[in-house]
Amino acid sequence: MKGFIHSIETCGTVDGPGLRYVIFTQGCLLRCQYCHNADTWEIGKGKEMTVEEIIDDVKTYLPFINASGGGITVSGGEPLLQIDFLIELFKACKKLGIHTAIDSSGGCYTAEASFQQKLNELLSYTDLILLDLKHIDEKKHRKLTGKTNQHILQFARFLSEKNVPIWIRHVLVPTITDDPNDLRSLAAFIRTLNNVEKIEILPYHKLGVYKWKALGLKYPLEGIEPPSEESMEMAQRILNGTEDTVPLT
């Protein structure tokens, strides 16, 4: 079983608990305006790697991973586009007692029977989902990513019903995803889920802009700067439910 891999980070510290072996898969259906990995979009590209090759490499880092309470995280791109590969990879990880996590937007989630069957099998080997919720407003989500968010919210509800532990991730982009009322709506949705262990606000950054230019693409958020500390604190208060109650307008 082979996967299409964009890159690997061997000592990640921001993609789940402990030190993580982070695999960035190739291929994504969303076209997020702030994407810092635009070079992962194209499906079927990247380096082909077998499960055995990855596991052999992971083993060399296991002493550090285990000592830190870490594990393996598959990010992207969108990992669920390569669900068969993930199933075999996570099966192998579980034989070694490795904690497994998936960083996903749910952008390819579907209720189609064969996908559901494979997803349920994958989740039996998955300890944590880092769920990227880009925008709660459907129209704004379409503008931001090029796709609807309805199947993504359905994915979140599915994970809640299955009681799969999730960390919610939301990228705070000034003028795009930082409207207080949108954040309150997102917070209200998150409160309907019973499996949320953590909520992370990620500040928008411009570190991937050079990739857009290298790909010959026009970067759509020119002129937008990272959020202020005050904006980050405001978003944290709203999404974590510690804001003074302010009615939606």
Averaged pLDDT, please? Answer: 95
Number of helices, where a helix is a run of at least 4 consecutive DSSP H or I residues: 9
For this structure, the quaternary state is: single chain
Overall structural class, as computed from helix and strand content, comes to alpha/beta
Beta percentage is: 15-25%
Main beta sheet:
8 strands, mixed
Q: Give a count of the beta strands, DSSP E runs of length 2 or more.
A: 8
Question: Which spans of ≥5 residues are poorly predicted at pLDDT below 50?
Answer: none
**Terminal residue distance:** 52 Å
Strand adjacency order, main sheet:
3-1-2-4-5-6-7-8
Radius of gyration equals: 18 Å
The helix-strand sequence is EEEHHEHEHEHHEHEHH
Q: Based on CA inertia axes, which overall geometry fits?
A: globular
InterPro entries: Aldolase_TIM, BssD/PflA/YjjW, Organic_radical-activating, Organic_radical_activase, PFL1_activating, Pyruvate_for-lyase_activase, Radical_activat_CS, rSAM
Function: Activation of pyruvate formate-lyase under anaerobic conditions by generation of an organic free radical, using S-adenosylmethionine and reduced flavodoxin as cosubstrates to produce 5'-deoxy-adenosine.
Subcellular location: Cytoplasm
Family: Belongs to the organic radical-activating enzymes family.
Describe this entry's structure for a reader:
The protein has 249 residues and is an alpha/beta fold. The protein has 9 helices and 8 strands. Strands 3-1-2-4-5-6-7-8 form an 8-stranded mixed beta sheet. The longest helix is centred in the middle third of the chain and has 13 residues. It is globular and about 45 Å long. The protein starts with a strand and ends in a 10-residue tail after the last helix. It holds the Pfam family Radical_SAM. Keywords: 4Fe-4S, Cytoplasm, Iron, Iron-sulfur, Lyase, Metal-binding, Oxidoreductase, Pyruvate, S-adenosyl-L-methionine. Its EC number is 1.97.1.4.
